[in-house]
Design goal:
The protein folds into two domains: about 1-30 and about 165-360, no CATH class; about 30-165, Rossmann fold. The protein is built from five helices and 20 strands. The chain has helices at about 5-10, 35-45, 60-70, 90-95, 100-110, and strands at about 80-85, 120-130, 135-140, 145-155, 170-180, 180-185, 195-200, 205-210, 215-220, 235-240, 245-250, 250-255, 265-270, 280, 290, 300-305, 320, 325-330, 335-345, 350-360. The protein has a four-stranded mixed β-sheet with strand order 1-2-3-4. Helix 3 packs parallel to helix 5. The protein is elongated and about 65 Å long. It starts with a helix and ends with a strand.
Length: about 350
Protein backbone atom coordinates (compact mmCIF):
# COMPACT_ATOMS: atom_id res chain seq x y z
CA UNK A 1 0.00 0.00 0.00
CA UNK A 2 1.43 3.44 -0.88
CA UNK A 3 2.78 5.42 2.11
CA UNK A 4 0.49 8.36 1.30
CA UNK A 5 -2.55 6.12 1.61
CA UNK A 6 -1.29 4.50 4.80
CA UNK A 7 -0.91 7.89 6.43
CA UNK A 8 -4.51 8.83 5.57
CA UNK A 9 -5.98 5.54 6.73
CA UNK A 10 -4.38 5.78 10.16
CA UNK A 11 -6.78 6.91 12.92
CA UNK A 12 -5.86 10.59 13.26
CA UNK A 13 -9.34 11.96 13.96
CA UNK A 14 -9.61 13.81 17.26
CA UNK A 15 -12.64 13.92 19.56
CA UNK A 16 -13.87 17.26 20.85
CA UNK A 17 -14.54 17.01 24.56
CA UNK A 18 -16.85 20.01 24.73
CA UNK A 19 -19.33 19.81 21.82
CA UNK A 20 -21.40 22.75 23.02
CA UNK A 21 -18.62 25.34 22.83
CA UNK A 22 -15.72 23.83 20.98
CA UNK A 23 -13.35 25.99 18.99
CA UNK A 24 -9.99 24.30 18.64
CA UNK A 25 -7.52 23.61 15.89
CA UNK A 26 -8.85 20.35 14.52
CA UNK A 27 -7.70 18.67 11.35
CA UNK A 28 -10.60 16.50 10.26
CA UNK A 29 -9.13 13.23 8.98
CA UNK A 30 -11.93 10.67 9.42
CA UNK A 31 -11.73 7.18 7.95
CA UNK A 32 -12.51 7.47 4.27
CA UNK A 33 -16.25 6.99 4.35
CA UNK A 34 -17.06 7.48 0.72
CA UNK A 35 -15.59 7.81 -2.69
CA UNK A 36 -15.57 11.59 -2.82
CA UNK A 37 -13.11 11.85 0.05
CA UNK A 38 -10.98 9.22 -1.62
CA UNK A 39 -10.98 11.28 -4.80
CA UNK A 40 -9.92 14.30 -2.76
CA UNK A 41 -7.08 12.29 -1.28
CA UNK A 42 -5.74 11.29 -4.66
CA UNK A 43 -6.07 14.81 -6.02
CA UNK A 44 -4.30 16.28 -3.02
CA UNK A 45 -1.55 13.65 -2.83
CA UNK A 46 -0.29 11.96 -6.01
CA UNK A 47 0.44 8.32 -5.28
CA UNK A 48 3.84 6.92 -6.11
CA UNK A 49 3.93 5.45 -9.66
CA UNK A 50 3.83 1.68 -9.81
CA UNK A 51 2.40 1.02 -6.34
CA UNK A 52 -1.31 1.32 -6.97
CA UNK A 53 -1.75 1.58 -10.73
CA UNK A 54 -2.02 -1.49 -12.97
CA UNK A 55 -0.12 -1.90 -16.21
CA UNK A 56 -0.10 0.93 -18.73
CA UNK A 57 -2.13 -1.19 -21.13
CA UNK A 58 -5.12 -1.25 -18.78
CA UNK A 59 -8.12 0.50 -20.34
CA UNK A 60 -10.79 2.48 -18.52
CA UNK A 61 -13.32 -0.31 -19.19
CA UNK A 62 -10.94 -2.87 -17.70
CA UNK A 63 -10.42 -0.67 -14.66
CA UNK A 64 -14.20 -0.44 -14.18
CA UNK A 65 -14.42 -4.23 -14.51
CA UNK A 66 -11.77 -4.75 -11.83
CA UNK A 67 -13.36 -2.17 -9.50
CA UNK A 68 -16.70 -4.01 -9.80
CA UNK A 69 -14.92 -7.26 -8.91
CA UNK A 70 -13.46 -5.68 -5.80
CA UNK A 71 -16.85 -4.32 -4.74
CA UNK A 72 -18.51 -7.70 -5.29
CA UNK A 73 -15.82 -9.32 -3.11
CA UNK A 74 -16.64 -7.17 -0.05
CA UNK A 75 -17.63 -9.56 2.79
CA UNK A 76 -21.32 -9.69 3.74
CA UNK A 77 -22.35 -7.35 0.92
CA UNK A 78 -25.94 -7.94 -0.15
CA UNK A 79 -28.07 -6.26 -2.81
CA UNK A 80 -29.97 -4.45 -3.97
CA UNK A 81 -27.68 -1.41 -3.76
CA UNK A 82 -28.41 2.25 -4.49
CA UNK A 83 -25.63 3.70 -6.70
CA UNK A 84 -24.56 7.34 -6.49
CA UNK A 85 -21.95 8.56 -8.97
CA UNK A 86 -19.44 11.41 -8.73
CA UNK A 87 -17.33 12.62 -11.60
CA UNK A 88 -14.69 15.30 -12.11
CA UNK A 89 -16.13 18.05 -14.26
CA UNK A 90 -13.30 17.59 -16.74
CA UNK A 91 -14.65 14.17 -17.72
CA UNK A 92 -18.21 15.25 -18.47
CA UNK A 93 -17.58 16.28 -22.07
CA UNK A 94 -15.31 13.32 -22.83
CA UNK A 95 -17.06 10.38 -21.21
CA UNK A 96 -20.59 11.55 -20.41
CA UNK A 97 -22.19 8.80 -18.37
CA UNK A 98 -20.89 5.90 -20.44
CA UNK A 99 -18.52 4.76 -17.72
CA UNK A 100 -21.40 4.81 -15.22
CA UNK A 101 -23.47 2.55 -17.47
CA UNK A 102 -20.47 0.25 -17.82
CA UNK A 103 -20.13 0.01 -14.04
CA UNK A 104 -23.83 -0.74 -13.63
CA UNK A 105 -23.58 -3.62 -16.10
CA UNK A 106 -20.42 -4.96 -14.47
CA UNK A 107 -21.83 -4.90 -10.95
CA UNK A 108 -25.05 -6.61 -12.10
CA UNK A 109 -22.92 -9.25 -13.85
CA UNK A 110 -21.60 -10.05 -10.37
CA UNK A 111 -25.17 -10.78 -9.21
CA UNK A 112 -25.61 -7.55 -7.24
CA UNK A 113 -28.90 -5.84 -8.08
CA UNK A 114 -29.15 -2.04 -8.27
CA UNK A 115 -32.14 0.06 -7.27
CA UNK A 116 -33.29 3.65 -6.79
CA UNK A 117 -34.95 2.79 -3.46
CA UNK A 118 -33.71 5.39 -0.91
CA UNK A 119 -33.82 2.73 1.82
CA UNK A 120 -31.25 0.56 0.04
CA UNK A 121 -27.56 0.67 1.06
CA UNK A 122 -25.78 3.57 -0.64
CA UNK A 123 -22.92 2.63 -2.97
CA UNK A 124 -20.89 5.71 -3.93
CA UNK A 125 -18.75 5.46 -7.07
CA UNK A 126 -16.38 8.16 -8.28
CA UNK A 127 -14.09 8.93 -11.19
CA UNK A 128 -11.38 11.54 -10.69
CA UNK A 129 -7.79 12.23 -11.56
CA UNK A 130 -4.45 13.38 -10.26
CA UNK A 131 -1.79 14.97 -12.46
CA UNK A 132 -0.55 11.43 -13.33
CA UNK A 133 -3.44 9.01 -12.76
CA UNK A 134 -7.13 8.33 -13.23
CA UNK A 135 -8.77 7.11 -10.03
CA UNK A 136 -11.90 4.98 -9.74
CA UNK A 137 -13.27 4.53 -6.23
CA UNK A 138 -16.26 2.96 -4.52
CA UNK A 139 -17.43 3.03 -0.91
CA UNK A 140 -20.27 1.47 1.05
CA UNK A 141 -21.11 0.85 4.70
CA UNK A 142 -21.54 -2.85 5.54
CA UNK A 143 -22.29 -4.13 9.04
CA UNK A 144 -21.31 -0.79 10.64
CA UNK A 145 -17.98 -0.82 8.81
CA UNK A 146 -16.87 1.50 6.03
CA UNK A 147 -15.59 -0.42 3.02
CA UNK A 148 -13.55 1.46 0.39
CA UNK A 149 -12.24 0.10 -2.93
CA UNK A 150 -10.15 1.94 -5.46
CA UNK A 151 -8.41 1.33 -8.75
CA UNK A 152 -6.03 3.69 -10.51
CA UNK A 153 -4.45 3.74 -13.96
CA UNK A 154 -2.11 6.12 -15.76
CA UNK A 155 -3.64 9.23 -17.30
CA UNK A 156 -2.07 8.19 -20.58
CA UNK A 157 -4.67 5.41 -20.77
CA UNK A 158 -7.39 7.98 -21.32
CA UNK A 159 -7.15 11.39 -22.98
CA UNK A 160 -9.16 13.85 -20.88
CA UNK A 161 -9.37 17.59 -21.37
CA UNK A 162 -6.20 19.53 -20.70
CA UNK A 163 -6.13 20.43 -17.03
CA UNK A 164 -4.48 23.40 -15.39
CA UNK A 165 -2.42 21.40 -12.92
CA UNK A 166 -2.20 23.88 -10.06
CA UNK A 167 -0.44 23.05 -6.79
CA UNK A 168 -3.65 23.40 -4.77
CA UNK A 169 -4.96 21.30 -1.92
CA UNK A 170 -7.95 21.55 0.44
CA UNK A 171 -7.30 21.90 4.17
CA UNK A 172 -10.33 21.38 6.42
CA UNK A 173 -10.69 22.16 10.11
CA UNK A 174 -13.68 21.52 12.40
CA UNK A 175 -13.89 24.71 14.47
CA UNK A 176 -17.29 24.46 16.19
CA UNK A 177 -20.17 22.06 16.80
CA UNK A 178 -23.46 22.37 18.66
CA UNK A 179 -26.84 20.62 18.95
CA UNK A 180 -28.49 23.98 18.16
CA UNK A 181 -29.30 24.72 14.55
CA UNK A 182 -26.70 26.95 12.89
CA UNK A 183 -27.87 28.81 9.79
CA UNK A 184 -24.65 30.65 8.95
CA UNK A 185 -21.22 31.49 10.36
CA UNK A 186 -18.76 34.32 9.82
CA UNK A 187 -15.32 35.18 11.13
CA UNK A 188 -14.96 38.34 13.22
CA UNK A 189 -11.99 40.42 12.16
CA UNK A 190 -11.24 42.97 14.86
CA UNK A 191 -7.48 42.87 14.74
CA UNK A 192 -6.90 41.47 18.20
CA UNK A 193 -9.36 39.09 19.83
CA UNK A 194 -10.78 37.47 16.73
CA UNK A 195 -13.53 34.88 17.12
CA UNK A 196 -16.60 33.92 15.18
CA UNK A 197 -20.26 34.91 14.84
CA UNK A 198 -23.10 32.42 14.36
CA UNK A 199 -26.68 32.84 13.20
CA UNK A 200 -28.36 30.50 15.69
CA UNK A 201 -31.90 29.04 15.72
CA UNK A 202 -33.03 27.52 19.02
CA UNK A 203 -36.50 27.06 20.49
CA UNK A 204 -38.07 29.19 17.70
CA UNK A 205 -35.68 32.04 18.53
CA UNK A 206 -33.25 33.56 16.04
CA UNK A 207 -30.10 34.96 17.63
CA UNK A 208 -26.63 36.13 16.74
CA UNK A 209 -23.94 34.58 18.90
CA UNK A 210 -20.52 36.16 19.23
CA UNK A 211 -17.87 33.65 20.22
CA UNK A 212 -14.45 34.62 21.51
CA UNK A 213 -11.27 32.99 20.25
CA UNK A 214 -11.66 30.14 22.78
CA UNK A 215 -15.17 29.28 21.58
CA UNK A 216 -17.06 30.71 24.55
CA UNK A 217 -20.24 32.73 23.98
CA UNK A 218 -19.35 36.35 24.65
CA UNK A 219 -22.54 38.06 23.44
CA UNK A 220 -26.08 37.19 22.33
CA UNK A 221 -28.25 39.47 20.21
CA UNK A 222 -31.87 38.41 19.69
CA UNK A 223 -33.43 38.88 16.26
CA UNK A 224 -36.80 37.56 17.39
CA UNK A 225 -37.22 40.44 19.85
CA UNK A 226 -36.44 42.81 16.99
CA UNK A 227 -39.35 41.40 14.99
CA UNK A 228 -37.64 38.77 12.87
CA UNK A 229 -39.89 35.70 12.88
CA UNK A 230 -38.32 32.51 11.57
CA UNK A 231 -40.07 30.67 8.75
CA UNK A 232 -40.90 26.96 8.74
CA UNK A 233 -37.65 26.38 6.90
CA UNK A 234 -35.43 29.11 8.37
CA UNK A 235 -32.43 30.39 6.47
CA UNK A 236 -30.32 33.48 6.63
CA UNK A 237 -27.00 35.02 5.76
CA UNK A 238 -24.66 36.67 8.23
CA UNK A 239 -22.10 39.35 7.46
CA UNK A 240 -20.02 40.74 10.31
CA UNK A 241 -17.35 43.38 10.75
CA UNK A 242 -15.22 44.45 13.69
CA UNK A 243 -17.97 46.42 15.45
CA UNK A 244 -21.24 45.66 13.65
CA UNK A 245 -22.94 43.43 11.11
CA UNK A 246 -26.00 42.54 9.03
CA UNK A 247 -28.33 39.55 8.81
CA UNK A 248 -30.36 38.87 5.67
CA UNK A 249 -33.55 36.80 6.11
CA UNK A 250 -36.12 35.82 3.44
CA UNK A 251 -38.25 38.94 4.05
CA UNK A 252 -36.16 41.15 6.35
CA UNK A 253 -32.79 42.71 6.84
CA UNK A 254 -31.44 43.25 10.35
CA UNK A 255 -28.56 45.49 11.46
CA UNK A 256 -26.74 45.08 14.76
CA UNK A 257 -23.69 46.31 16.61
CA UNK A 258 -21.30 44.60 19.02
CA UNK A 259 -20.69 47.86 20.90
CA UNK A 260 -23.93 47.72 22.92
CA UNK A 261 -26.15 44.90 24.14
CA UNK A 262 -29.19 46.37 22.41
CA UNK A 263 -31.21 44.16 20.11
CA UNK A 264 -30.88 44.33 16.36
CA UNK A 265 -32.94 46.72 14.23
CA UNK A 266 -34.91 44.87 11.54
CA UNK A 267 -36.67 46.28 8.50
CA UNK A 268 -38.51 44.93 5.48
CA UNK A 269 -36.23 44.04 2.61
CA UNK A 270 -35.86 41.78 -0.40
CA UNK A 271 -32.31 40.62 0.07
CA UNK A 272 -30.05 39.51 -2.74
CA UNK A 273 -28.67 36.15 -1.70
CA UNK A 274 -25.01 35.40 -1.53
CA UNK A 275 -23.22 34.53 -4.73
CA UNK A 276 -21.02 31.42 -4.84
CA UNK A 277 -17.85 31.87 -2.80
CA UNK A 278 -14.63 32.25 -4.79
CA UNK A 279 -11.28 31.72 -3.05
CA UNK A 280 -7.93 32.95 -4.37
CA UNK A 281 -4.89 31.25 -2.87
CA UNK A 282 -1.58 33.05 -3.36
CA UNK A 283 -0.35 30.55 -5.97
CA UNK A 284 -3.47 30.80 -8.17
CA UNK A 285 -4.91 34.29 -8.48
CA UNK A 286 -7.51 33.14 -11.00
CA UNK A 287 -9.77 31.98 -8.19
CA UNK A 288 -11.56 28.74 -7.28
CA UNK A 289 -15.34 28.57 -6.82
CA UNK A 290 -16.92 26.56 -3.96
CA UNK A 291 -20.07 24.66 -5.00
CA UNK A 292 -22.26 22.15 -3.19
CA UNK A 293 -22.78 18.74 -4.71
CA UNK A 294 -26.45 18.05 -3.86
CA UNK A 295 -29.64 19.72 -2.65
CA UNK A 296 -30.80 16.65 -0.73
CA UNK A 297 -30.65 17.55 2.96
CA UNK A 298 -31.01 13.90 4.02
CA UNK A 299 -27.67 12.72 2.54
CA UNK A 300 -24.00 13.62 3.01
CA UNK A 301 -22.84 16.42 0.74
CA UNK A 302 -19.80 16.89 -1.46
CA UNK A 303 -18.22 20.29 -1.94
CA UNK A 304 -16.72 20.87 -5.36
CA UNK A 305 -13.86 23.34 -5.74
CA UNK A 306 -13.64 24.34 -9.40
CA UNK A 307 -11.55 26.97 -11.24
CA UNK A 308 -13.52 30.18 -11.64
CA UNK A 309 -14.14 31.87 -14.97
CA UNK A 310 -15.85 30.81 -18.22
CA UNK A 311 -12.62 29.52 -19.72
CA UNK A 312 -11.60 27.55 -16.65
CA UNK A 313 -14.82 26.02 -15.29
CA UNK A 314 -15.09 22.33 -16.03
CA UNK A 315 -11.35 21.93 -16.57
CA UNK A 316 -10.58 20.53 -13.11
CA UNK A 317 -12.20 19.92 -9.75
CA UNK A 318 -11.21 19.17 -6.17
CA UNK A 319 -13.73 17.33 -4.01
CA UNK A 320 -14.26 17.29 -0.25
CA UNK A 321 -17.02 15.30 1.43
CA UNK A 322 -18.97 16.27 4.55
CA UNK A 323 -20.88 14.22 7.16
CA UNK A 324 -24.18 15.74 6.09
CA UNK A 325 -25.80 18.43 3.91
CA UNK A 326 -23.98 21.73 3.45
CA UNK A 327 -26.20 24.52 4.79
CA UNK A 328 -24.04 27.56 4.02
CA UNK A 329 -20.68 28.63 2.64
CA UNK A 330 -19.40 32.03 3.77
CA UNK A 331 -16.18 33.47 2.37
CA UNK A 332 -13.95 35.13 4.94
CA UNK A 333 -11.78 38.22 4.65
CA UNK A 334 -8.90 35.85 4.14
CA UNK A 335 -9.15 35.35 0.35
CA UNK A 336 -8.07 31.71 0.65
CA UNK A 337 -10.55 30.59 3.35
CA UNK A 338 -14.29 30.14 3.98
CA UNK A 339 -16.57 28.83 6.72
CA UNK A 340 -18.87 25.91 5.85
CA UNK A 341 -21.89 24.94 7.98
CA UNK A 342 -23.15 21.37 7.81
CA UNK A 343 -25.36 19.03 9.81
CA UNK A 344 -23.71 15.80 10.90
CA UNK A 345 -26.26 13.10 10.06
CA UNK A 346 -24.69 10.64 12.51
CA UNK A 347 -24.51 12.83 15.61
CA UNK A 348 -27.30 15.30 14.81
CA UNK A 349 -24.97 18.21 15.67
CA UNK A 350 -24.47 21.25 13.50
CA UNK A 351 -20.82 21.75 12.62
CA UNK A 352 -18.72 24.63 11.30
CA UNK A 353 -15.64 23.85 9.22
CA UNK A 354 -12.93 26.21 8.08
CA UNK A 355 -11.95 25.44 4.48
CA UNK A 356 -8.62 26.74 3.23
CA UNK A 357 -7.10 26.40 -0.23
CA UNK A 358 -3.41 25.89 0.39
CA UNK A 359 -0.56 25.94 -2.09
CA UNK A 360 1.58 22.92 -2.82
CA UNK A 361 0.99 19.20 -3.06
Amino acid sequence: MPPALKRWLSPHASVLSSPQNAVRPFLDLPLLRNCSLLLSLFIAFSLEPGHSAPADSTSLDEAIHQLAERVAAIPNLRGPLRPQFFQDASFAADTGKDWQDTFRKEIENHHLALTDDPAAPLLRIGLGETPTQLVLSASIRVSDKDEVCFFSLPRSAFRAANLPVAPIRIERQLVYQSPDRILDASTIWDGAEGGMALLDYRNADLSILRLDSSGQIAQVISLTVAGAQPSRDPRGELTVRASDGTVLLPTKGCDFTWVTSADAKCHAAKPAWRAPTVLSPSCNAGGWKLLTGTSDWSTPDVMQVVPDGPRREGSAALLSDFPGPILSINGEQDPASALVVTKNLRTGNYEVYKITLACGN
